[in-house]
């Protein structure tokens, strides 16, 4: 007998019919002999509705009270799902985060899980119940309701799986797995059967919004076997997110092409080239809590150099303002900005043991006349910043060049 945690997202429980459909899946899994813990999100659109409602009363909602409000979305779905299961003759019990006792810190709206009391869930499972838990929420040690940040039900699912040492955590969503790239851009994109945690983190942070990033980190840390599947499809295997050692034999060199549209570039021209200059430029940017991604400092000539970096596009104006101050301070010549940048990355653990991936990437882009403005690399990823208008073309040609459209590539 296996212990499985199944997490269903907002679209999967978006209306009563869909909730009954989830109940049928849960019942079938239990009938197949497994113990099942279910985590659910709020019905689709509900969390947004509750946030908007709060803002009608208080433009800048008090975080503690906001958590009291938004946590109700999930409380409705756990009750409805249990009713659907009871109607089918399946023993089921629902619990809010606080009832389980998912203990978190007290940072309202973005709390972190500290400890999970699993006794109650275990007792219910032993007596043949399906346990249904509200995602996205917990309670701090003073008894206040907390929430885990948008998309946080994924993290609840993984955390429960870790606490219960479950055999697998299955994340049911409206796509049938993780793809080699976005199928809306490349129709030939393929579903991956397996991907490593590290690759998934690179793919997720670059815009493949299948899973909350924190849940993937959590699963990697606590060695939870994680699988992404569709709740609208029968019998698919989805994508298993796993450890490198498990898939070495069949590991492709490149697993996917990730991208991010919303980048902007800032350049400080004619900065005096002396120790501490990078800190003088980026220190104030970091203090303003702006994430810097790629960074380039050019070779200096005549004692001055140019310094460029990228930020998320919606931080562009703030970053520009900060640089204007920095310019006067360090005696730079000029600030230039470009707010229509995009980042494209090839991702794969296989590149650790292969040479020539970067040159293949650069040649492919060159053949299309796409100018690379910045480059950054990690052990399992090569990223380039390009003009946003070439993004889709770049993704398409790279997907083809690395033969990601071919099975077993
Ligand atoms: N309902 C929450 C949200 O919309 C949590 C989740 O669905 O994972 O962000
Ligand atoms: Mg989600």
From TrEMBL:
It catalyses: L-aspartate + ATP = 4-phospho-L-aspartate + ADP. Its EC number is 2.7.2.4. It comes from the Bacteria. Residues 266-340, 346-409 form the ACT domain. Keywords: Amino-acid biosynthesis, ATP-binding, Kinase, Lysine biosynthesis, Nucleotide-binding, Transferase. GO terms for molecular function: kinase activity. The keyword Ribosomal protein does not apply. Belongs to the aspartokinase family. This is Aspartokinase. It comes from Viridibacterium curvum. The lineage of its organism: Bacteria, Pseudomonadati, Pseudomonadota, Betaproteobacteria, Rhodocyclales.
């Amino acid at each position: 007998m296996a212990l499985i945690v199944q997490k269903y997202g907002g679209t999967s429980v978006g209306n009563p019919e869909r909730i009954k459909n989830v109940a049928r899946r849960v019942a079938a899994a239990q009938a197949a002999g497994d113990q099942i813990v279910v985590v659910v999100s709020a019905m689709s659109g509900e969390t947004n509705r509750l946030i908007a409602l709060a803002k009608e009363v208080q433009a800048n909602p008090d975080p503690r009270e906001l958590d009291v409000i938004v946590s109700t979305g999930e409380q409705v779905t756990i009750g409805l799902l249990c009713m659907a299961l009871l109607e089918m003759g399946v023993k089921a019990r629902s619990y809010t985060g606080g009832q389980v006792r998912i203990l978190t810190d007290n940072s309202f709206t973005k709390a972190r899980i500290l400890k999970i009391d699993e006794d109650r869930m275990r007792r219910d499972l032993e007596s043949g119940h399906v346990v249904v838990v509200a995602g996205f929420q917990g309670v701090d040690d003073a008894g206040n309701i907390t929430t885990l940040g948008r998309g946080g039900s994924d993290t609840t699912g993984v955390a429960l799986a870790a606490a219960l040492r479950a055999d697998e955590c299955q994340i049911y969503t409206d796509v049938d797995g993780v793809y080699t790239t976005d199928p809306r851009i490349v129709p030939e994109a393929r579903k991956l059967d397996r991907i490593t945690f590290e690759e998934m983190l690179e793919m997720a942070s670059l815009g493949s919004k299948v899973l909350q990033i924190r849940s993937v980190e959590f699963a990697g840390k606590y060695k939870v076997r994680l699988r992404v599947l569709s709740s609208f499809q029968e019998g698919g295997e989805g994508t298993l997110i796993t450890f490198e050692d498990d898939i070495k034999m069949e590991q492709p060199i490149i697993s996917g092409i990730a991208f991010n549209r919303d980048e902007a570039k800032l350049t400080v021209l004619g900065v005096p080239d002396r120790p501490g200059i990078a800190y003088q430029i980026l220190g104030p940017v970091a203090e303003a809590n702006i994430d810097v991604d790629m960074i380039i400092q050019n070779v200096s000539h005549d004692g001055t150099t140019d310094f460029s970096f990228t930020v998320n596009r919606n931080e562009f104006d703030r970053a520009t303002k900060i640089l204007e101050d920095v310019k006067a301070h360090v005696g730079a010549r000029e600030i230039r900005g470009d707010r229509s940048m995009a980042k494209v990355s090839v991702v794969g653990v296989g590149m650790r043991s292969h040479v020539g991936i970067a040159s293949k990437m650069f040649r492919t882009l060159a053949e299309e006349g796409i100018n690379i403005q910045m480059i950054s690399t990690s052990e399992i990823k090569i990223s380039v910043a390009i003009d946003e208008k070439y993004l889709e073309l770049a993704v398409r040609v790279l997907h083809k060049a690395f033969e990601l459209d071919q099975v077993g590539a």
